[in-house]
Amino acid sequence: MNKAIATLARLLVRPLRKYPGLTLFCALTSLLVSGCATHINQPDSTLSTPTTDYDVEHNLVFTPPDWPQALQADLYRPRREDPAPAVLMVHGGGWERRSREDMDWIAEELAGRGFMVMNIDHRFAPEATFPAQLYDVQVAMTWLHDHAADLALDPEAISAFGFSSGAHLISLMAALAGSGHELDEPYGGARLRPKAVVAGGLPADLPAFGTGKLLKQLLGGTLAEKPDAYRNASPITHVGPETPPFFLFHGAMDSLVPLEQATAFRAKLAANDIENQLYIMRLRGHITSFLTAGTVLDEAASFLLRHSTSGPDRDQVKDPETGPDSAPE
Questions:
Q1: CB neighbours (10 Å) of residue 328?
Q2: For residue 132, which of 7, 188, 259, 312 sits 20 to 30 Å off, Cα-Cα?
Q3: Burial class of residue 211 in the structure, from the number of CB atoms within 10 Å of its CB (0-12 exposed, 13-18 middle, 19+ buried)
């Protein structure tokens, strides 16, 4: 029990270090609610991940020389003898702000579990309008594949992890990959389809938000002016039989990105027979679901590991029609 409490405290304190303005009350509240969750399509067991030392290469430029803006990433390289599974990581911030530093603590956790992590920045709206941000993510995934041999990573085990607007970008890339849609060209393609995706606070259906400042400046107009742009920029539009497995986590009290965004996206995945899990974090909103995401990492890391491994260890998670649909924690 003492070990479990110590682990939970570590996972809560690491993200809070990034936000020194938070009060002690907020930290204690996060601790109290951390165990309140419903896990839809929870597998029977959680795969254990090894504890691994790692090194970090900071400020690596991953964009081509002629890219409109040079973009950087931090690369977390686990010390292991065999080819490492990898994770492309994208931060949130409404497509207009924040940086990859917000995701440092999650990158550290995954690297410490044996994953190579590429934690990237992307261009911001309104200076760069969509699909610039999607292209940035696609180019980052291409960079990982192109450097797989040099980095000793497994090119058949590259997944993706994002939160909020970052979840939108990696989910859109994943759903588009190999679809032949115009947004999958010229920087996409089937090779870029992640093995699995972890998406937190995902804005999946952009028209459902109407028109607000963030979407207007991202897409260069209102929903009334550009309905096709809003629809085509929505990950839910492109879910199909080739979409990779998804692990979704979401705050039940999220007022910025309502929980219905995640449940609708999960329903579309299920309708296409795509393996999925949804971890609903009770008593938490958008920001608090991120600050307490450490409580999700065991399940998310197990999900990524399961899809980074071939053979009998890859259990198939059943949908509610064929198995238990949730397990309260």
A1: 11
A2: 259
A3: middle
Please tell me the pTM assigned to this model.
Answer: 0.87
167, 228 Cβ separation under 8 angstroms: no
Q: What is the pLDDT of residues 74-101, one digit of tens each?
A: 999 999 999 999 999 999 999 999 999 9
- 21-35 mean pLDDT: 48
Q: Is the Cα dihedral 223, 226, 228, 231 positive or negative? A: negative
249: β partners: 200, 279
Quickly count: other Cβ atoms within 10 Å of residue 6's Cβ: 10
DSSP 275: -
Q: Is the dihedral of CA 145, 150, 151, 154 positive or negative?
A: positive
CB 205 within 8 A of CB 258: no
Domain ranges of the chain: 2-313
Q: According to the CATH classification, is domain 2-313 in 3.40.440.10? A: no
- Greater pLDDT, 166 or 50: 166
Which of 45, 28, 37, 116 is closest to 75 using CA atoms?
Answer: 116
Continuous H helices in the chain? 2-16, 24-33, 104-111, 132-146, 148-151, 165-176, 213-219, 227-232, 259-271, 286-291, 297-306
* Structure token pair of residue 27: 């930290």
pLDDT class of 17 with cuts at 50, 70, 90: low
Cα(252)–Cα(48) distance, integer angstroms: 27
User: Would you say 98 and 170 are in contact if contact means Cβ atoms under 8 Å apart?
Assistant: no
DSSP bridge partners of 76 = 56, 117
Distance of alpha carbon 299 from alpha carbon 311, whole angstroms: 20
- Select from 194, 235, 32, 14 the least CA-distant residue to 110: 14
